[in-house]
Amino acid sequence: MVIIIVNFKTYQKASGEEAVKLARICEKVAKDTKADIMVAVQNVDLFHVSKEVSIPVLAEHADPVSYGAHTGKDLPESLVDNGATGVIVNHSEDKEELVDIETVIKRAKGIGLQTIVCAPSPESSEAIAAFSPDFIAVEPPELIGGDISVSKAKPDLISNTIRLVNKVDKQIPVLCGAGVKDSEDVRIALELGCKGILVASGITKAKDPEKALRELVSGGV
Ligand code: G3P
């Protein structure tokens, strides 16, 4: 079944109380359709959202730190304590150095926090694959938030990412994201070999998020 990660980012309709409402919608669609839907919420919303829904709740960021004197950082252990089952790493809106990506992946593995590591290109996906994250998500930055999906605009980028990641480690599932809006976008991504997609604006800015999410799920069955 298709994996759909709904990234709430800092959209108003996906922050605070609205984050809880949107997560409940995602949970409802997941239950009805059996799709593997996860929500990635702002770290400050983790505790609240994770108490309210039974689907996996991801953090949007973790810092490569351990317990100690690190003011203002997001400690991986604290994300888990606050209900996160995983974390998005190196999103193009939250870029990180390769060395920090590696550290976060290592730290997350030790505490049962899944890592969904984003990359802008096949080559950076290949480099990240060496660190054995749980997922790699390729997202061309220029298509994020737009109306044309990565699946339709850059199918070669998806295929090349899967090819290069497989060269390093065939076990790492590849996801893709950017501009995903309809069932066709999801269908193409799966046909190219992705296990699922990441989506933000297609859901957070939709007039009817439940309908929009059901539309995406229908591309994966
Ligand atoms: O992480 C998913 C995201 O970057 C894609 O954003 O708005 O193009 O669906 P969007």
Describe the structure.
The protein has one domain (3-218): TIM Barrel (Alpha-Beta Barrel). The chain is 42% helix and 16% strand. It has helices at 17-33, 46-52, 76-81, 98-111, 122-129, 150-153, 155-168, 183-191, 201-204, 209-218, and strands at residues 3-7, 36-41, 57-59, 86-89, 114-119, 135-138, 174-177, 196-199. Strands 1-2-3-4-5-6-7-8 form an eight-stranded parallel β-barrel, surrounded by six helices. The longest helix has 17 residues, at 17-33. The model has no long low-confidence stretch (mean pLDDT 97). SN-glycerol-3-phosphate binds at residues 7, 91, 139, 144-145, 177-180, 198-202.
**Please, what is the average pLDDT?**
97
Q: What ligand species are in this complex?
A: SN-glycerol-3-phosphate
**Please, how many helices?**
10
CATH architecture: Alpha-Beta Barrel
Query: End-to-end span in angstroms?
Result: 7 Å
Count every beta strand, where a strand is a DSSP E run of 2 or more residues. Answer: 8
Uncertain spans: none
Cα shape: globular
Helix content: 40-55%
CATH homologous superfamily designation: Aldolase class I
CATH-defined topology:
TIM Barrel
Most strands sheet? 8 strands, parallel, barrel
Largest sheet, spatial ordering of strands: 1-2-3-4-5-6-7-8
Query: How large, in whole angstroms, is the Cα Rg?
Result: 16 Å
Total tally of structural domains: 1
% residues in beta strands: 15-25%
Structural class by secondary-structure content: alpha/beta
Report the order of strands and helices.
EHEHEHEHEHEHHEHEHH
CATH class: Alpha Beta
